[in-house]
UniProtKB/TrEMBL annotation, chains A, B:
Domain of life: Bacteria
InterPro entries attached to this UniProt entry: Carboh/pur_kinase_PfkB_CS, PfkB_dom, Ribokinase-like, Tagatose/fructose_Pkinase
Transmembrane segments: none
Protein name from the UniProt record: 1-phosphofructokinase family hexose kinase
A GO biological-process term: small molecule metabolic process
Keyword Signal: no
Assigned keywords, A-Z: ATP-binding, Kinase, Nucleotide-binding, Transferase
Ranges where the Carbohydrate kinase PfkB domain occurs: 12-294
UniProt signal peptide: none
Protein's UniProt keywords contain Transferase: yes
Record PROSITE patterns: PFKB_KINASES_1, PFKB_KINASES_2
Length: 316, 316
């Protein structure tokens, strides 16, 4: 099975309003609630691809219960998906919400993200024990998203080392100091976006920055560059992979779908160009889907064999 | 005991952000959750004034459970308040949230109100039965706020008639068609704000509009006019009541505190000028309180005997 870790999971709420005007009162027309957090998104795409997956991290309070109920309901409603197993570790705090306010007049989104619950040392200890117990059955693990308050900033470094000790391929998708510390523990793959990569390395040219990030400890770096697709720097070479045309839609969750593509491609033994094609096609299919974070299977099928993968020059 | 009805109760969430910018992403600095809905606010003020009160209406889902837990926690934490009894009727739907986003740079608030759960005919029937069972023990009842989807638009008219049949004084605080229908059932008191009164009557001069609203069926009309205080039109005369000076602060809940003042003053046998003074002082103390919807006891005490109550001319 695959394993995704979401330490700061969320209940994602979307409000649709006719027009958002700061400092006034709005009647919300539509309310949507989904299980959220990057690792949860990755797991849902893996399950849709037919991969059994376990989600772990922290969940607590009324919003944590709502998140878990939505995951279970999703499983019941999608019998053709692979099994998604809930292995969240309970906490005394309350899982955060994110609120996305969609302005129907422009399609623009205003995002409000709660900080997340405080995690106690005992809860962090309970998590690392549960994680160690899951690793022996794990094909590959993705460590995703921000750290909630109370989790040590070196948390991802610890989780990367545990995966490597158990011989489980490990992908890290986070930012800031958590990425800086985590990458030093030598994960198999990191997937920053362009801003995160520049912040990590201080280098603004993506290919140079990706190579710099490899030197910091990642065996491979795949940077997600929005509409320009993916840029990979690996031991086997470097590639750019882009969709055949710009895809219109909502980019929320496109990076998480790329992670699912990379992780499943690794486990399926695909070479780098095929892994990158899968990741780009899943990202495009997520942008094209009407609901944020879903992916559109027909776009996936249509884009998959038309992704343009271009080798990049060897490092100077 | 007093009874307040909140058919569209809410979990009120407040987010504080450094500066709200439409179409960008915000990390929320502070999250506050409170039991919400106008009748719930009225009940909390009545309990703080030493009046036993029962809250009813509909509650359901994770947010309904959170609302009820917060009400219970509030009772435990405030042993000097009178008893607040939870008599919400459970529903299969989920209690709505309201989200207030406070911009710390300006103090301005952007409000997002969910529409509320759909109420089934069986749930409405269960409510009217529960309400009828509570009336014989009720000193006075306040019917407050909007109607959730599925509740008949004539709901308040039905609840007003039931209260009158049980000889229980009834106050109605709502707007639009629910107010128009409810007022025709002859409540003892309606408390619109200036806009609601103008919308009901088509008359923009408040005193004329209040008298027009009496002709539509209300035995008395008290309009809340923001910083200008209250305007009352009753069988015993008409008055304006205003605080001695403008009170700075957050007006959220000021109208609900006025309702609590009017209801408790009626039950205590106060004459109209004394009732209006109490209502104005409670409103001012609510505006002055640091947390929205709370009231500041020292402001209440300081303002109470300095409210200016001026008789208004007889109708032409």
């Amino acid at each position: 099975m695959f394993l995704t870790v979401t330490l700061n999971a969320a209940l994602d709420i979307t409000y649709r309003v006719p027009r958002l005007r700061a400092h006034s009162t709005h009647r919300v027309q539509e309310v949507d609630e989904r299980p959220g957090g990057k690792g949860v998104n990755v797991a849902r795409v893996l399950a849709a691809l037919g991969k059994d997956v376990t989600v772990t991290g922290f969940a607590g309070g009324a919003t944590g219960a709502a998140l878990r109920n939505l995951l279970a309901a999703d499983q019941r409603e999608r019998p053709n998906h692979a099994r998604l197993t809930d292995a969240f570790v309970p906490i005394s705090g309350t899982t955060r919400r994110t609120v996305a306010v969609v302005d129907a007049s422009s399609g623009d989104t205003t995002q409000l993200n709660e900080p997340g619950p405080a995690i106690s040392p005992a809860e962090w200890q309970a998590f690392t024990t549960a994680y160690a117990g899951l690793l022996p059955r794990t094909t590959a693990v993705a460590l995703c998203g921000s750290l909630p308050p109370g989790v040590p900033v070196g948390a991802y470094a610890e989780l990367v080392r545990a995966a490597r000790a158990a011989d489980v391929p490990v992908l890290l998708d986070t930012s800031g100091e958590a990425l800086r510390r985590g990458i030093a523990a030598r994960p198999d793959l990191v997937k920053p976006n362009g801003d995160e990569l520049a912040q990590l390395t201080g280098v603004t040219v993506p290919l140079r920055a990706a190579r710099d990030a490899r030197r910091r400890g990642a065996a491979a770096v795949v940077a997600s560059l929005g509409a320009e697709g993916l840029l990979a720097a690996t031991a086997d070479g470097a590639w750019r992979a882009a969709p055949p045309q710009t895809i219109a839609g909502n980019p929320t969750g496109a990076g998480d779908s790329a992670v699912a593509g990379l992780l499943s491609g690794l486990a399926d033994g695909l070479d780098w160009p095929a892994r990158l094609s899968r990741a780009v096609a899943l990202s495009a299919a997520t942008v094209a889907a009407p609901a944020a974070g879903e992916f559109d299977p027909s776009t996936y099928a249509a884009v998959l064999d038309r992704v343009e993968v271009a080798p990049q020059p060897h490092a100077a």
